[in-house]
């Protein structure tokens, strides 16, 4: 998943995609405090549209209890990262609901797992609003324009705040022009390369971890003569071994908003 895709997943839904439910009512049940939520189908569509149907999957685990209140449903949502050739999974859970216990529990678990991927998470910041009720429990259809206005105003403010935060972050990350090209190209102490240029130093393989599956890859821990360690992924399972020296490495630093920072070793030369 790219940074652009992560932003698209997190982008607010349109007002037409938002559902509303009653949280509590007045004593006479003429009014209710309502909250916005996203239907599971809207989340599925967002995942399909942004990632493609083949690049995400979900899995459910149910842990039965003695009653609905003690039964737990866990949903795992996995997203495929092509550059790392691996699936990354995040999960969350929910209990069974009073109405349609299993279906409701699975749906809530799916929506909570989606929130871990930042889909619809912004809705937790949406202030509650009171609306007139019909028959003491349903939102009066005449209240829809008011709810839509309330939601759209919040989204506009939210997007402006997000844009301001991004501009502030980008400004803080701007490299001063006074920094020389040679010092800017020096790898930091953390062992993460800042450019994709070929690295001239020789590194010894300190550790190897090969993963199996449809898209196998190899996690390599390299150590320089000075003792600096660099970790990176190599696609596939090359014939390498611990203690072997690599040189002329081309390492690309990645910074994913979900997976974090990691390195891809695109090319290298192995000593015999």
Salient structural properties:
272 residues; alpha+beta; Enolase-like, domain 1; OB fold (Dihydrolipoamide Acetyltransferase, E2P); 2 domains; 6-stranded antiparallel sheet; 4-stranded antiparallel sheet; 5 helices; 13 strands; elongated
Short description:
By secondary structure, the chain is an alpha+beta fold. It contains 5 helices and 13 strands. The longest helix has 30 residues, at 144-173.
Walk me through the structure.
This protein is an alpha+beta fold and 272 residues long. It has two domains: 3-164, 2-Layer Sandwich (Enolase-like, domain 1); 192-270, OB fold (Dihydrolipoamide Acetyltransferase, E2P). It has helices at 3-10, 40-51, 101-116, 144-173, 181-184; strands at residues 18-25, 31-38, 56-63, 72-81, 86-95, 129-134, 138-139, 198-199, 203-210, 217-223, 229-235, 245-256, 260-270. Strands 8, 9, 10, 11, 12 and 13 form a six-stranded antiparallel sheet that branches. A four-stranded antiparallel sheet has the order 1-2-6-7. The relative contact order is 0.13.
